[in-house]
Write a structure and sequence with these properties.
Blueprint: E1 4-7, H1 10-17, E2 37-44, E3 47-54, H2 83-91, E4 96-97, E5 99-107, E6 113-118
Antiparallel strand pairs: 1-5, 2-3, 2-4, 5-6
């Protein structure tokens, strides 16, 4: 996943993921960045539960001190071997991010970057003012 995304509206996310209203409160945001508190969905006793968590894994062996290297992305090829992700992966510690879409950079021939907004094709694009575009 990339390093920036937009949050889905709480009510829409709750309906889509089958979560009861009132488990979380977060503002609509069009620029969510790593290390922020973000809404996620986790499995709790066989049911979906809403939670707010810090975006980025802080491995247990760092004793609460985040690594200097980014831990916001894990590749499927290394999930079961990389020291940061191996133990949580084996224990089934996973979550779903609540988002309306994300930004993915495209590197141009001249070295500049353009940000592309990626979202499900069946969902309307939201403008920065919150309306549909």
């Amino acid at each position: 996943m990339c390093g920036k995304y937009i949050l889905a509206q709480a009510a829409k996310a709750e309906r889509a993921m089958g979560i009861r209203r009132g488990h979380w409160e977060y503002p609509l945001s069009y620029r969510v960045l790593p290390t922020e508190q973000v809404p996620v969905v986790v499995a709790a006793e066989g049911a979906r539960e809403a939670a707010l968590m810090r975006w980025g894994l802080v491995p247990w062996w760092t004793h609460g001190v985040p690594l200097k290297a980014s831990t916001i992305n894990a590749t499927a090829e290394r999930l079961d071997r990389a020291p940061s992700y191996r133990d949580p992966w084996r224990r089934g510690q996973r979550c779903l991010f609540v988002m309306g879409g994300f930004y993915e950079p495209h590197l141009n021939a001249d070295g500049s970057r353009d940000q592309f907004f990626v979202r499900p094709h069946h969902r309307p694009r939201q403008s920065a003012a919150g309306g549909s575009a």
